[in-house]
Amino acid sequence: MAPQPDTTVGGLGEFGLIRQITGRFAAGPGVLVGPGDDCAVVAAPDGRVAVTTDVLVEGVHFRLDWSSAVEVGRKAAAQSLADVAAMGARPTAIVVGLAAPATLPADWALGLSDGLAAECAVAGAYVVGGDVVRSDRVVVSVTALGDLAGRRPVLRSGAVPGDSVVVNGPLGRSAAGLALHLAGDAALLERFAPLAAAHRVPAPPYAAGPALADAGGTSLVDVSDGLLQDLGHVAEASGAVLEVDAGALEAYVTELAGCADALGADPWEWVLGGGEEHSLAGTAPAGAGLPPGTRVVGRVVAADGRAPGVVLRGRALPARLGWDHYAG
Amino acid sequence: MAPQPDTTVGGLGEFGLIRQITGRFAAGPGVLVGPGDDCAVVAAPDGRVAVTTDVLVEGVHFRLDWSSAVEVGRKAAAQSLADVAAMGARPTAIVVGLAAPATLPADWALGLSDGLAAECAVAGAYVVGGDVVRSDRVVVSVTALGDLAGRRPVLRSGAVPGDSVVVNGPLGRSAAGLALHLAGDAALLERFAPLAAAHRVPAPPYAAGPALADAGGTSLVDVSDGLLQDLGHVAEASGAVLEVDAGALEAYVTELAGCADALGADPWEWVLGGGEEHSLAGTAPAGAGLPPGTRVVGRVVAADGRAPGVVLRGRALPARLGWDHYAG
């Protein structure tokens, strides 16, 4: 009997794996040198490049028994690509580091690559390079580049009293999905499948980043740690108080009510504190023409001697909010 | 008695650690937005950006009992910055991902940051952003950006018959240092301290990358896997045969002879196959005016029906050469 081919990452070898992976990445108009050399070369027609990096660790940011390889790839790419959008930039390219055990099935690495490429396609970007190394645990690092196309970058520090607080994209869906996966009830996972999927693969509103910048947006972040916590970064950087109206968030809560009922959970915790959503939140001048899907959820007021921060109006804060990688 | 402050990464918390780390990074002229927002923004005056990423894993690429945190930071930065030089570009910025256990001393993370910043200073680049996440093992990912300043990128595929094969920077020193650390003899580590240090902190000849490009260099790589293996990538990409003269490498071997004698090792293995050196190797037209420190070590000849590859002239190949992350 012929020996079975070794279909693990280790069996394929570093160079064999890299060859198979890079064969899956499409070339794009702004990709001047693609994968396979010491560096990629990407067009930066604006004379500036926005750059951000994120790391995902198996067991912390994803679980191999919950997510397919394609889903992990999409989530890893989305996390960094959303940061680019949150500067008001258009994502152009990502480079990827993969640390993986030799025993990892090669198909998993290829699925990851397909997921990275698929999410890049949604955002208009390309996978242009990477590194593959040995490790006892799967770790994926994604660095994303973006083109500001002449725009000023939209920072966290630009909120001014009188601005509206705005959100583009859903809130609390990823947190609801995480709760569903943690509960592990197959019937509920099936019944609320779109929410479970929203945890495994977030859907950042990429185009809304540049659109909010063009609309005069004064500050912008992506919702990675939770709405109130991320708006808190804006408040601190801007030295202002952001008042969020609970009433303006009812629509997000209502959407999650059925799932929250089924799990005995508080949907307000998900909407106010749920991370990994990668929607966009920030501030814009009151009365500005906002891009489609943008909702006004509050206003910026002067700190007037108070500590900068976020205040929820019309409702008491839920007990548990936010996410610190070395707390909670 | 007052409780002792918790001086671990976990005790400081994600945001506390990020605040302390980013306080250590100097601002630079090309850094338009530094650490602390969703993205950094870096000048790309050339309208293109070179980008590369590398991942280092504790126990695979560095050992906490061999290397200080500063040394790990310098090595992690050097590895990516050398890839930028190997395109003929000048490094401008890096972003860094750190995955670390909550029990890691915060001082280690700060030392790593100092090392990253120090190596960037050598290369003329800046640390502009990063991510910190929880993991059971230390993993460091570094993505470096570079400016081609109007140059064509020097690819692996440009070697043509008649070119000289060239090297800039030392060879085999990192491999000798690795052998010293593996042997673990304190007296030898002391006697050959510069070689041991060369393993912990490589010294890529950053300026030689753009200089070789300006000299008309036709191909360029950094020596990360071993001279013959990395030149093999050039040979394959160029469809040519690279003949390397053993005689031209004697100087590198002689420098390592004392250490090799003491360890009972073959210094030719180190010079021909030693990785993680991050010197530059490639090809340039015969007779080109080469930058200081560049040595001609061979020539490019037509494949003429042979498989592209590297041939060593004047000496038999040592038995063990090269490095594959999922082999050897």
Q: Can you walk through the features of this model?
A:
- The structure is a homodimer of 328-residue chains.
- Chain A has 328 residues and is an alpha+beta fold.
- Chain A has 2 domains: 17-147, PurM-like, N-terminal domain (60s Ribosomal Protein L30, Chain: A, 2-Layer Sandwich); 156-313, Alpha-Beta Complex (Phosphoribosyl-aminoimidazole Synthetase, Chain A, domain 2).
- Helices cover 34% and strands 24% of the residues of chain A.
- Chain A is built from 11 helices and 12 strands.
- Chain A has helices at residues 9-12, 14-22, 69-85, 106-123, 173-183, 186-191, 193-200, 208-214, 227-238, 250-263, 267-273, and strands spanning 31-33, 40-43, 48-57, 90-100, 126-134, 139-147, 164-168, 219-222, 240-245, 280-284, 294-302, 309-313.
- A 6-stranded mixed beta sheet of chain A has the order 8-10-7-11-9-12, sandwiched between helices.
- The longest helix of chain A has 18 residues, at 106-123.
- Chain A starts with 8 loop residues before the first helix and ends in a 15-residue tail after the last strand.
- At the A-B interface, helix 1, helix 2, strand 2, strand 3 and strand 4 of A face helix 1, helix 2, strand 2, strand 3 and strand 4 of B.
- Strand 3 (48-57) of chain A pairs antiparallel with strand 2 (40-43) of chain B, so a sheet runs across the interface.
